[in-house]
Amino acid sequence: MSLRETIIPILTVIAVIVAIWYAAAVWMNAQWTLDQAERAGQTVTFTQIVADTMGQDRPLLPAPHQVIAELWNTTVEKKITSKRSLIYHAWITLSATLLGFAIGTTLGVLLAVLIVHNIAADKSLMPWIIATQTIPILAIAPMIIVVLNAIGISGLLPKALISTYLSFFPVVVGMVKGLRSPEPYLLDLMRTYNASGWQTFWKLKWPGSLPYLFISMKIAVAISLVGAIVGELPTGAIAGLGARLLAGSYYGQTIQIWSALFMAAALAAVLVGIVGLLHRITLKRMGMAR
Amino acid sequence: MNLGWIVFAAVFWIGAWGLNEWLVRLKPGHVLHIRTINLAVPLIFGLTILVVWESVVHGFSISPILLPAPSAIWERIINSTPTLWADFQQTFLKAGLIGYALGCSAGFAVAIMIDRSPFLQRGLLPLGNFVSALPIIGIAPIMVMWFGFDWPSKAAVVIVMTFFPMLVNTVQGLAAASAIESDLMRTYAAGYWQTLIKLRLPAAMPFIFNALKINSTLALIGTIVAEFFGTPIVGMGFRISTEVGRMNIDMVWAEIAVAALAGSAFYGAVALFERLITFWHPSIRAG
After folding, report:
1. Is it the case that residue B54 has pLDDT exceeding 60?
2. Is the pTM of the predicted complex or chain greater than 0.95?
3. pLDDT at A31
4. What mean pLDDT is predicted for residues A71-97?
5. Fewer CB within 10 Å: N-end or C-end of chain A?
């Protein structure tokens, strides 16, 4: 498929979304303008309404350019160390995300190895690993944060643990599938080489499971970010993208909410993109790229 | 510290572990026995966790503020059933289920609508995949601002969360019918709608159910988290955040138990429905 065939449809859809967004901004913010005008005893024309809806301080729906202006203000024009810099908040969230993702992936791989090599673990652990995911961990994030704070663990780790809880699951499922993916004839071949279990693992099963690992890691890193953001909600809105969301909703700062959302989206895109890039490079070097 | 409880926990754990190791090494001939063992092993494991949890809480005298014992949580569930039921109604039956139904049907409907336009598909699919990776839960404060404190704002969050997985999966599913089957439909002179209903939709069902299953967990999470941003004085998310503030951790665990039970039951119901609808699929025929 050529570049034109993929880029043009996407750009068209994005253009339509932006157009709808502007229209919705006018429609949703017009009421406030009309109310203000009525209170002042003035009448406003349609063009005045449109002009006003584009630049309100606390619009119901900020126009795209307002969000972009806020993003520019809070990233480029503020010092990174400033509490009002979005980069500072994004870094707080990112560090929790990465720590949680690292712990979650390690834990997931270890559990998968255990499950693949021990029948008892397979039969007893697997149903409960699935059951853990029916517990809405995001819902109990506040309790985990508060309880861990009470026993003296605070800062990065509690948030990271929520990310861990969310991210280990796709890794376990993907790795179990991956470690079992080598065909029986390949295992037989290893046996004819008189390979030990250890050698079979490192030379056959582990390389064979890498494509599965990377696909799982893409999912895991995305939900790690969600976990870190939700983990920041109950900390009393101190720092991080989640805290920005919460503070914005308390004070009706819609532009702040939207810019935090866009930052989170950009962060998610970059993280998933990096894992995707690692995926491609690794598979290429291993000669598995298609 | 109470040594008796800890020794008991250790002994129980080792005993249960040994029992499980023995059970999985049995080679029963009868199908019924295999099924019983497959059911018993995870149950023993779960029971072990509960017993060890209970013993460790008593053994190390852990404060109920940090970690209440399972028996205390159970007591709390029994004592506050009306509150739990009201929260469950508000969060799951109203916001969760309505949002789930609307979001899934909207995703499905849009997938059918763009089915005949490859241009829109190429434009919307990458976007849908991208949005699925985003922390959509962040729109909760905006939805609360737009739709008020009551359940409609939570349902709106769930609609947005469930829409994209459904869209992407349905579009993929509609492409799943093989060329041979499509050609067969053409030899029958079947029209677009006939092909859609008789061949492509049934072939898409495994994908659609995949989305339904993913969305069933998303719906509950979305509702509960959205309730952190403002809610009337009922609902599971509201209860969790206020009871944490009042250090009633056993009530929080009671809500978690209800949420886990509801989530598992919901997932199980969807999975059961999937077995009924896609009985022809190899993954179901085999098991």
Report:
1. yes
2. no
3. 76
4. 79
5. C
Whole-number Å distance between alpha carbons of B154 and B92: 10
Separation of alpha carbons A104 and A169, rounded Å: 8
Nearest to A249 by CA among B155, B242, B137, B145: B145
Give the span between the Cα atoms of A4 and A274, in whole angstroms: 24
pLDDT tens profile B224-250:
888 877 777 888 888 887 887 787 888
From the CA atom positions of chain A, what is the Rg in Å?
25
Reported as a single tens digit per residue, the pLDDT across B180-205 is 888 999 999 988 899 888 888 888 88
Cβ proximity of A149 and A156 under 8 Å:
no
Fold for the domain defined by B76-286: MetI-like fold (1.10.3720)
Question: Which residue in chain A has the smallest CA separation from B221?
Answer: A136
**Is the interface score ipTM higher than 0.95?**
no
**Cα distance between residue B115 and residue B193, in whole Å:** 11
Residue with tokens 């829109």: B120
Return the closest-CA partner of residue B222 out of B99, B85, B83.
Answer: B99
Query: CB of B209 within 8 A of CB of B127?
Result: no
Residue A146 has pLDDT above 80, yes or no: no
Contact of A217 with A94, CB cutoff 8 Å = no
Task: Decide which of B261 and A137 is more confident.
Answer: B261
Rounded to the nearest integer, the mean pLDDT of chain A is 81
A54 vs chain B: nearest CA distance in angstroms? 18
With an 8 Å Cβ cutoff, are B122 and A257 in contact? no
Q: Which residues of A touch B252 (CB under 8 A)?
A: 140, 143
Contact A252 B145 (CB under 8 A): yes
Radius of gyration of chain B (CA): 24
User: What is the residue extent of each domain of chain B?
Assistant: 3-61, 76-286
| Chain-chain contact of B67 with A264 (C-beta, under 8 angstroms) | no
